[in-house]
Each structure stands twice: as structure tokens, then as C-alpha cells.
User: What shape does this take?
Amino acid sequence: MKVYITRKIQSKAIKYLREKGFKVSIYPEDKPIPKKVLLKNIKNVDALIPLLTDKIDKQVIDKMTKCKIIANYAVGYENIDVEYAKTKSIIVTNTPDVLTDSTADLAMTLALACCRRITESRKLIDDKKFTHWRPNLLLGYEIKDKIFGIIGAGRIGEATAKRAHAFGAKIIYNSISENKRMKNDFNAERVSLNKLLNISDFISIHVPSNKQTVHLLNKENLKLLKPTSILINTSRGNIIEEKALVEILKKGKIFSAGLDVFEHEPKIHPELLKMVNVILAPHIGSATIEARTAMAMLAAKNVVSVLKTGNKPITPV
Ligand code: GLV
Ligand code: GLV
Assistant: This one.
């Protein structure tokens, strides 16, 4: 049976698939596969392992007449027309859990880098302005006793709350459903989105991107943020109306932002590039050796489970 992988993912997973007897083909270049090339290569595949940068739409799905499973190498799956795949009896899987700690670590990294002004610190040194120790140089904020607002209390939101709680923050969250562990373990209070935006010192976004969450943070409600607040996004860029965020940053209406994802990725708003209080990362939430290896293996194991052993997928969408 044939598997097509749209990028060279971790070799352990490729080796595993080959050991299981699959014929594995891989797009060899380290950039998103052009649509034409994808369509040409997937005609006879039994399984497809795409990346979050690949749009798996009706046209792509229609091409794969033999395909039984699309195993996304990502936890987010807004790149796939899941409803349409379902009508073709194609199973879609993603990679939850295995990247939770990695992504929560990055959310915390950005929170800390923002409140301790790490890019400004580096710039000051690069600019040869570290001339002596100064009582008022680059003062930031501590996390202890601050209100840490989590938007989306799923796996990653909860793991981020755990970290912020360990730093001594008070946790609040906004979520479509109650998360009892957040209450029990971190004494977290569930609040409305507007209240969260209005009272949080740190705000960290952990909702998936879908019709309900696009521009969840927008021109109207971004106005509620405190001038001392720090906004972190490791989810998807289009959850925040980026233009509106740029405006409030430009006007100094919030302290800083830590962004791993962007509305028009990989394009970054030119104004953001100029702001030294904004910490930027190139979508590296799951970029640890541990998480990426586990993501590749989970995608491969979903393929094997569905095609070889006739079992159910491990992590269906
Ligand atoms: C990364 O952004 C993912 O969805 O896995
Ligand atoms: C800081 O370096 C201190 O000694 O207080």
C-alpha cells in the first residue's frame, strides 16, 4: 500500500512505515508542496500524511479515489475539508496530546520573554547601550500574583494554566465548556471573554481556528485590555484581528505581545517587525525533538492502524 507524505518528516516514522511494508513517497523539498505536484502524486495513494501548510480541499480529496486515511501532521486540522472527506469515507486524524507540553512551554516562554523584555534587552546590548547597571533599566513584571487569562481550556490551555499556576499567578479562563480540573487543580475561575480581557495581566490563546473563533479577539474587544497586559498567541493567527492588534500596540494600549502565529502566515504585519516589545516566533509551538518525533510517529501509527490492522484510528478528528 502507498503512503504519500508532503514533506520530509522525522525519519523514525518513515522507517516505521517502510518496516510495516508501505511504499512511502515523500515530497523532497523543504517548502510547501505546490498544488499541481500534490495532485499529480496522490492519485493511487491509500494514505496521505499532509502538513498544516497543505490545503486538503475537495479537489485534492476527489483525486484520491483509493485513499482511506488523511493523517494530518498537526493538532489543528482547519487545512482539511473534514466534512467532505467524511462523505468519501476517508478518515481524518490529527496529533493531539503529543505536542501539548511543547506548545504550553512556548506560551510560557513568550509570556516570560514579554514580561522581562528579552528582545529589548538583547537590542540594548547590540546597540552598545549596556554601559552600567541601572536601577531603572528595562523594568518588567513578575508573573506571581498576576491574573493569567486562558482562552480555550482544552489540553494546551490547561497545560499552560498549570505552568502559570506554578509561577504563582491567579488563573481565570474562558471556554465553551467548564473544565473541572482547572477548578480543582488551579482554583481557576471560568469567566466571560470580555471579563477575561478586561482583568487579565496575561492573556494566552488556546482555541482552535474555526468559524466560531476567527477574529475572536477583534477591534471591539481588544479595547478592553489593560495598558499593562501581555497578549500571547500560540494557536492560530486568525484568532486575532491582526490589524486591530497592531493599532493597540502602536498606541501603547498594551504592554507587549508574544506571537508564534500570524493572520497571513508566513507574512508578518510590517508594523509588528518594527516593535521591539513584540516577541515574534515562526510558528514553533510544537518544534521540540520530542513533540515532532511523536507527531510523526502518531501520524504513521494512525495510518498503520487503519490500513494494516483494520482497527480504528488512534486519534480521529
Ligand atoms: C501546529 O500548529 C499544529 O496544529 O500542530
Ligand atoms: C542584583 O544583581 C542584586 O545583587 O541585587
